[in-house]
Amino acid sequence: QGVSLGDTFTLRCHLPRLAAWVWLYQEGGLSYYKGKEKEENAAEFFFVSTEREHAGRYWCQYRVSESAEVSMKSDPVELVLTGENTGTVDSSERVRTGTNVTIRCWNKDYGATFLLHKDGRSAPIQHLVPDDVGAVSFTLFGVTPADSGTYRCSYHPKNYSFLSSPLGDMSSHPFPMEVMLGMNTPKYLYPTGAELVSRGNLVVAVVRGCAAVLIFALGVFFVIDDRSLWIRRDESLGGEGI
């Protein structure tokens, strides 16, 4: 369960038997005791304003009235607190294929571990620990259209493994990125096999076109030349008859 810092929350212990005393234990932390005026099958523990120390793993335990028998501890429940926001980015939203993109994340909690998330991916795609400056720069090298999407930052404060910054709402400053294809798309230094085939086909088409034009021009030339020859012959024969 995720709860924001400063919020009120309730942990409820569901009991398989009617109990008069219920304990709530926090791993490595405090224990909370609650006596009940009447035996009930549930007990609620209220926390008015959550702090970092409340994050962690909890167990319930109970005892039936007029009995020295204490139950086994329940299955644990983990409480994750969401804290301060992170910030991003210093890069444009539209980039070209092959570009290196930098996404910058920061917060005021030095020593935190930063995580870079991409919407649609269940696990973080990168994680970094800053060098005592409270900020990190994630780099995506040579992006492709497959890298298009929305990216977000989160962090885990040092020594608080169950505390995580917000993720999934607008307060986490989502960074949408679209990788564009176009005339200015960077090309490989050496052409790929597909490019070689394409260029070869283009050369063949150009050669065939030029050959067709040349043959047509030669045909027209021979027709005109042949007609000129017949005209000269007719004129010559006409002169002899006179």
UniProtKB/TrEMBL annotation:
InterPro entries: Ig-like_dom_sf (IPR036179), Ig-like_fold (IPR013783), Ig-like_Receptors_ImmuneReg (IPR050412), Ig_sub (IPR003599), Immunoglobulin_dom (IPR013151). The keyword Transmembrane helix applies. Pfam families: ig (PF00047), Ig_2 (PF13895). Residues 1-82, 90-180 form the Immunoglobulin domain. The chain crosses the membrane at residues 202-224. Keywords: Disulfide bond, Glycoprotein, Immunoglobulin domain, Membrane, Repeat, Signal, Transmembrane, Transmembrane helix. This is Immunoglobulin domain-containing protein.
